[in-house]
Design a protein that fits this description.
By secondary structure, chain A is α+β, with helices and mostly antiparallel strands. In chain A, about 60% of the residues lie in helices and about 10% in strands. In chain A, strands 2, 3, 4, 5, 6 and 7 form a 6-stranded antiparallel sheet that branches. Chain A has a two-stranded antiparallel sheet with strand order 1-8. In chain A, helix 1 crosses helix 13, helix 3 packs antiparallel against helix 10 and helix 12 packs antiparallel against helix 13. In chain B, the strands form 7 sheets. Chain B has a 5-stranded mixed sheet. Chain B has a 5-stranded mixed sheet with strand order 9-10-11-8-12. The radius of gyration of chain B is 33 Å and the shape is globular. The chains are: A alpha+beta (about 350), B alpha+beta (about 800). The interface between A and B is large, with 131 and 144 residues.
């Protein structure tokens, strides 16, 4: 008995260890993202990597903010203040201790070691926003556009998909079953097939460089969500409906008052999935949007990357800012999220 | 639950009130309806450093009373796909600042407006644009088939920079730079210095380091790349081959291109530029390098001379007799640069023309120079003006703003004086392809040890590729333009047929009782959104797409019916793209999907072992899968940076695998053979998303099966193999099907990770990340070959269909369905 107990305990310990290790592995890139967004440019390319953000120690010298550094003079390590950066790659320094305190000297940048202390470089965040065109109001326009897209897509999808699903599951009409097969078949169709003609339609409507092509289709329902909701509607017994009909309820009232409240979990799942989908949508804006004033976040981030790929601090700060709302939504609605995935059988 | 739903319904209400807003609200924000007219300009580099440009534009706004909106993001960075989409979508900018060498390509597609009418209209005006004011090379580069499509703005040209200190050190006369190719080769050898171990300490001259390319050497030797009428690619003419041979000779004399490249891979930029640090003694480069020297190494003792030429050219005669270079300038250079154009469909082309005239005027040039000089001085940098394509601007700016120091003034004068002898890249719609191929020929020939190719074979191969592209376009015109009535008639017939069928089916309603008739109408009403969407955005487009796949259609011109030509092209002349993209996607799916399944399942099984803290672990594993694709790709481009000092994974690699086994860290997205594994690693990070489903599957396995297996003495592995796996097989099947469909439509992260936004011509190194949808997207929205892209889409669809059918067919052999489960 005792031995078996010990064996079970070891087993649990091993599982825990594996899980902790695995979790860390999956979380490391997040940590790297945040750390990079808080590091000084100088610490970006170092081996071994710098994990704790550090920043230059600044001191006030004759009313000027200057960086603190150290330099070796005649075999002695001296504390100095960096007075001036020169075009020649040299620095003008002023000693702060040692025998000739206050003396000035010039040294190549490579010989001067900057003194740093642990501390995050928060400036990367405002700096990243500063690089955005002024008319985007520090990127708020992107957030606003993304929100509009998310909200309209959610409204459209939830409204249209539930209506259509209601029709396909609770109402009888000629051609229904045939059309349902077609609806299922459209799920198989790669988006690439209709991409070009749909572009031509939106061009004909004059919707290029507007947000319309990105949210209007949501109001026609999505095949997958219709299918999902139909399965839910089918599980609802007919008694409620019959009673309502006898009371003279209209079909809309049945849909609105009886059916919708019963499939709330599914609607919540669809809401979350649609939110993720529109937050993520990249190819749509890539095709249709060219003005910064109409760009959603995902596309704006990609453009930021092409422009500032060489400045990881700014890029990672921008990335973090784009990711944050999604993570917040996830933590707030984690249960429905997981439920939704299980319901829909969708990956992420 | 309730709260979430309440929030959702609140959002619904808020949103419904917003519905009308984006349409009108945003259009308003774009400012077209405002009081002052607004001119939208794309392609100008507007940033912190461009104070001069800002002043130039501001002065225009003040004088003309027109507001200029310079897009400094997105399309403003000149992704050709965005510009073409905007032009096709009828929302083009009013002015586009465009690389001159692509003008021929844009003009051939009718994407830009000819400017001849504007030019001749104000021929007499004081601010007229006069072709004679411009250098011939610059002006001719903007002319396509006899029409002017752009006004040249800036320009640049190339010459030999050499380090005088190193000349003296090597016992050479610093006032006597090499003038011929032979002298150049000789000087290159004398200036090269080796370390004790045989590696380079310094190289005298690298033929393709700097900015000369095969183009310059070839022109120097009298080679041309295209026939005069533009119908033939003459890349493999003997003079160009001899020029390439000279480049190969120099590389070989230095010890081979591989050794030189290894040295060059350590080169850095700005203050550590190898020419500034004396690692390279001579280079052929553009006038812009002067600014870098002035900023980072003003004390460098350097000089500039015309790029050395073949001896024959310098002497002009052969053995005293007239040669082929008699009467030609002894030294030449080549120039590139930018120009202003007005896209087709621009709303304010008249204002656009006024803007262009201003931007090209000497007065504006002086304003820019003044503002930029002030900015540079404030930053403690010298100001060295660039070169304009307009001779008058150059003279005015040089007189007032040329640097005082002779060291910079003389070279700048030389660069300006060389301009009349400048050559330019041929104006052709295959310009980009020609460029790519001449680079490839150079690459193949210099690596002759590996490829075994002589300059002649390499050039002949590249010429053939360009010729194929040329023939494809030149032979296209044989197809007749399609009568616009044809598609309409087809649409009407198909529509009428469908309508008749629908009516015939619905006819039954009339025979129904009152209640069911009401129900039927309600049914149609509720299904209406989807029905409408299906007809407008699915069924209609499918038919259109089938139709388009038999057409040649670029949207700007009426479609031409080409029969099966698009499909034939896809499988014959373009089979490289089709096979490469399918190979890449097969690689990604073949390795990525099984790995993803194994990872997801492994995590799920660990989590299923009823340990405490499961929800915390679950969150940790799940979190990466909800990260937006673009953000994830941006992050992983950084994590998988090839440089171990920067990339996290390579840092770990260097600290472990390199130490233990001596393996060098891979280049990931920078190396052809590692780009796909990189993509797979990035994908695995999100594998936790699949775990939720696996967990549901695992929890659905009846416990008694395990108990029975244990009674039979089954071990852990045996239980997994005989119980878990068969019971989970439906989930494996589901993942396989969805994974395959998803993999074949891969796009977003490939776009981000392969840097397509920057307008790269290859997707990942050597097309290693070219996936079918990426190729389709480029065909459709970069080149607007709508018919061709539709054909590709149908090929893709057939492949997806076949794969799914095969999987469904094989499924019964291994997928185990419980009787009570479906």
């Amino acid at each position: 008995m005792n031995r078996r107990n010990r064996y079970a305990r070891i087993r649990v310990a091993i599982i825990h260890a594996t899980l902790v290790l695995g979790s860390l592995l999956f979380l490391v890139p997040f940590a790297w993202l945040v750390v990079t967004s808080l590091k000084e440019d100088e610490d970006m390319s170092r081996f071994p990597p710098v994990w704790i953000p550090r920043r230059q120690v600044m001191i006030s010298l004759q009313g000027k903010e200057v960086g603190l550094a150290s330099v070796t003079v005649n075999g002695r390590r001296l504390k100095v203040a960096v007075i001036e950066e020169r075009e020649t790659g040299e620095q003008l320094l002023q000693t702060l201790d040692g025998p000739d305190k206050g003396a000035r000297l010039v040294r190549p940048r490579s010989e001067v070691t900057r003194i740093k202390r642990v501390g995050p470089v928060w400036e990367n965040y405002p700096d990243a926003l500063k690089f955005l065109p002024p008319e985007t109001h520090s990127g708020l326009v992107f957030v606003w556009n993304t929100l509009i897209l998310a909200v309209l897509s959610i409204v459209g999808t939830v409204l249209a998909s539930s209506m259509v699903a209601f029709s396909f599951s609770r109402l009888r009409w000629p051609g229904r079953d045939g059309l349902f097969v077609i609806l299922l078949a459209t799920m198989m169709l790669p988006g690439a097939v209709t991409m070009m003609p749909v572009f031509l339609i939106f061009r004909w409507l004059g919707w290029i460089d507007t947000l319309m092509p990105l949210w209007v289709p949501a109001f026609f329902g999505s095949a997958f969500n219709v299918f999902l909701l139909r399965q839910f509607f089918l599980t609802i017994p007919t008694d409620l409906e019959d009673a309502a009909k006898i009371d003279g309820c209209s079909y809309f009232a049945i849909y609105h008052r009886i059916m919708l409240p019963l499939v709330k979990p599914a609607l919540a799942a669809i809401t979350i999935m649609t939110f993720m989908g529109s937050w993520n949508n990249f190819m749509g804006p890539l095709i249709y949007i060219s003005s910064p004033l109409k760009m959603p976040l995902a596309y704006a981030l990609q453009l930021f990357q092409t422009a500032h790929g060489g400045e990881p601090g700014l890029l990672m700060a921008a990335s973090t800012m784009m990711m944050l709302p999604v993570l917040v939504v996830f933590f707030l609605t984690q249960r429905y999220f997981i439920q939704g995935v299980t319901l829909t059988g969708l990956k992420g | 639950m309730r709260t979430v739903f309440q929030i959702a319904s609140l959002l619904l209400v808020a949103a419904t009130s917003l519905v009308g807003l984006p349409g009108c609200g945003l259009r308003h924000a774009s400012g077209r309806s405002g009081q002052t007219p607004e001119l939208v300009v794309w392609g100008l580099q507007y940033g912190e450093e461009s104070e001069g440009l800002r002043a130039r534009v501001a002065e225009f706004e003040r004088r003309a009373g027109i507001k200029v909106s310079i897009l400094s993001m997105g399309a403003g960075q000149m992704n050709p796909q965005k510009l073409m989409t905007a032009i096709v979508g009828r929302v083009p900018p009013d002015v586009i600042h465009q690389d001159r060498f692509t003008i021929g390509d844009w003009a051939s597609r009718d994407a830009f407006q000819p400017l001849d009418a504007f030019i001749s209209r104000d021929a007499r005006a004081p601010d007229a644009i006069r072709p004679t004011d411009f250098y011939e090379a610059c002006w001719a580069e903007a002319v396509y088939k006899g029409k002017v499509y752009a006004v040249p703005s800036s320009t640049d040209d190339r010459a030999l920079y050499y380090n005088r200190t190193l000349f003296r050190e090597s016992g050479m006369d610093p006032d006597r730079p090499p003038r011929t190719w032979d002298e150049l080769l000789d000087a290159a050898k004398r200036l090269t210095k080796l370390n004790a171990d045989g590696s380079f300490a310094r190289i005298g001259f690298i033929p393709n380091y700097g900015n000369s390319w095969l183009y310059l050497y070839s022109w120097q030797n009298g080679g041309e790349f295209m026939s005069a009428d533009g119908s033939r690619c003459t890349l493999d003419n003997p003079h160009s081959v001899a020029a390439l041979d000279f480049m190969v000779q120099v590389y070989d004399a230095l010890g081979g291109v591989t050794k030189v490249d290894a040295f060059a891979s350590g080169f850095q930029a700005q203050e550590l530029d190898p020419f500034l640090t004396g690692k390279v003694a001579m280079k052929i480069d553009g006038n812009w390098v002067l600014q870098g020297i002035g900023r980072y190494r003003p004390d460098l003792d350097f000089a500039v001379a015309p790029a050395p030429v073949p001896r024959e050219r310098l002497e002009q005669t052969i053995g005293g007799k007239k040669g082929r270079f008699t009467g030609e300038p002894p030294f030449i250079t080549w120039s590139g640069g930018f120009s202003y154009a007005i896209p087709r469909g621009a709303r304010r082309s008249r204002e656009a023309w006024v803007f262009i005239k201003w931007m090209c005027s000497p007065e504006a040039g002086l304003i820019e120079a003044e503002a930029q000089k002030r900015y540079n001085l404030a930053k403690g940098r010298p100001f060295i003006p660039g070169i304009s394509a307009n001779k008058r601007v150059n003279e005015a700016v040089f007189a007032a703003y040329a640097p005082r120091a002779e060291k910079f003034r003389t070279p700048l004068r030389l660069f300006i004086d060389m301009m009349p002898a400048a050559r330019f890249r041929p104006v052709t719609f295959v310009g980009q392809r020609l460029w790519d191929e001449h680079v490839r020929a150079f690459d193949q020939a210099t690596h002759h040890k590996e490829t075994g190719k002589s300059p002649r074979t390499a050039m002949a191969e590249s010429a053939a590729v360009v010729q194929k592209e040329l023939d494809k376009v030149l032979n296209r015109k044989v197809y007749p333009a399609l009568d616009p009535k044809v598609p309409i008639v087809i649409a009407v017939i198909v529509g009428a047929g469908l309508l008749a069928y629908a009516v015939w089916r619905i006819r039954g309603i009339l025979g129904l009782g009152r209640v069911s008739r009401q129900e039927a109408w309600a049914g149609y009403a509720f299904a209406a959104p989807w029905l409408f969407g299906f007809i407008a955005l699915t069924a209609g487009p499918i038919l259109t797409s089938v139709f388009l796949s038999f057409c040649d259609y670029d949207v700007l011109h009426p479609p031409r019916f080409v029969g099966l030509h698009n499909y034939r092209e896809l499988f014959s002349s373009d089979s490289y793209y089709l096979t490469t993209s399918l190979y890449n996607v097969a690689y990604l799916a073949g390795i990525g999907i099984p790995l993803g399944i194994v990872t997801g399942l492994a995590i799920a099984m660990l989590l299923n072992s009823k340990v405490s803290g499961m929800s915390v672990y679950r969150t940790c594993f799940y979190l990466p899968s909800i990260v937006p694709v673009v953000a994830s790709a941006v992050l992983w481009a950084w994590v998988l940076n090839g440089d171990p000092n920067r990339g996290l994974l390579n840092a770990a690699w260097k600290a472990t695998l390199s130490v233990w086994f001596g393996w060098d860290p891979p280049g990931w997205f920078g190396a052809a053979e590692w780009a796909k594994p990189g993509l797979i690693v990035q994908g695995l990070w999100g594998a936790g998303g699949g775990m939720i489903l696996w967990l549901a599957g695992l929890q659905g396995i009846p416990q008694h099966l395990y108990e029975a297996a244990e009674l039979d003495g089954a071990g852990v592995w045996s239980k997994f193999k005989n119980v878990t796996l068969p019971m989970l097989s439906p989930y494996v099947f589901f993942n396989l099907i969805m994974g395959t469909i998803g993999a074949l439509q891969e796009f977003d992260r490939v776009y981000v990770l392969s840097g397509q936004g920057a307008g790269g011509s290859s997707v990942g190194p050597v097309d290693s990340l070219l996936v079918p949808v990426m190729y389709l997207f480029n065909s459709a929205f970069k080149y607007f070959k709508m018919g061709y892209a539709s054909a590709l889409a149908w090929v893709l669809f057939v492949i997806i269909l076949l794969l799914t059918l095969v999987q469904l067919k094989i499924a019964p052999r291994w997928v185990h369905y419980e009787a009570e489960k479906k």
